[in-house]
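Throughout our pipeline, every protein is held as a single compact record rather than as scattered files. The record that follows is passed on verbatim for readers who wish to inspect the format.
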Amino acid sequence: MKNLFKHFKIPFLLMVGLFLLCGRTTAQSQAAGPGQYASEPLYEAAYHSIRAMIDGEKPVSFKRAVFLSENAFLEGNLNYQVFNQQIENLAELSHLVRQSRPLVYDKADSLEVAKNAALFTVLADSIPILMGVDTVWLEPFTYDFKDFNGRLEWSQMFVSKLLESGKGNCHSLPFLYKILADETGAKAWLSLSPNHIYIKARSKKDGWYNTELTSGYFPHDAWLMASGYVHLNAIRNGLYMDTLSKREAIATVLMDLAQGYQKKFGVGDGRFILRACDKVLEVDSTFVNALLLRAETQRKLLFGRYGLRYDLAEISDSLRADPALESLRGQYEELHRLGYRRMPDAMYLDWLSSFFLVYQILIT
């Protein structure tokens, strides 16, 4: 795909409204008033709306699900009209990018390929915009290495944060791509690897190909598998590197909702988090993030009942005799059997840096 996108450059966009240029900076008045809504009712409402999408009771909208999850964590301080307008602006920009110059591609699916090429350009390339006699460059979204996994501040993972700052990560960037793909009719799917999300698409020329938004690179499956801490069993069992269906994509957002709840309130009695995990596992019984979060939540609840911390070395005789411990051990063993291996943060950062190194080599 490298050569295909290399030819998809925009010399000028002859007419782009100023609202498009300012869409990332001036349309960010999202606050509905600090603390306007209580968080827990928002989480309940968001859960039921997202659950209804999974169960076919409401139309599936990845964009709406993402907004609900982020808005719950931000205590109702997002404005859906503003959020939606920002998405529409970017979708319109991708349409103008696609119209500004024909794609160098001669297969029957050229329109579909052009849609994905335009989305990639909007997210990962600088775009020259002609305004009168002046050319203004719209800068691409960039990777934010600060708190890349949202451990310190969960909102680092948010599409709304990406839209506001122009900086995102391997969670918010592919989420925004998927939202824009849905808006523009481009065929693109989310795909998972350890600690990571990327985009898969298909063309008649190249077959399936991967789009890596963190570096603007198109890595092969073999490279992702060899370098990305992916066990062969994890691929065989569908944990990683497969395309997510519409329901599975919504289930991914439900996992975000559960993780955001935990970040804000802690495990609590576990009911909200475990309910979300169980719903996700109805969609896919091997959904690795749900299996992990369920096991970790049950471990914290179990150890908490015995007044212990979370170190397995602290297991007491009474806990050792508790049947729940054996059940918990079975869950971790099942994760290992399926092919899950924890990727340390330092290793993930090294892996991520290799994307940028490969990309720099390719463009020089």
Summary: Residues 2-30+79-229+348-363 form one domain. The first helix runs from residue 2 to 6.
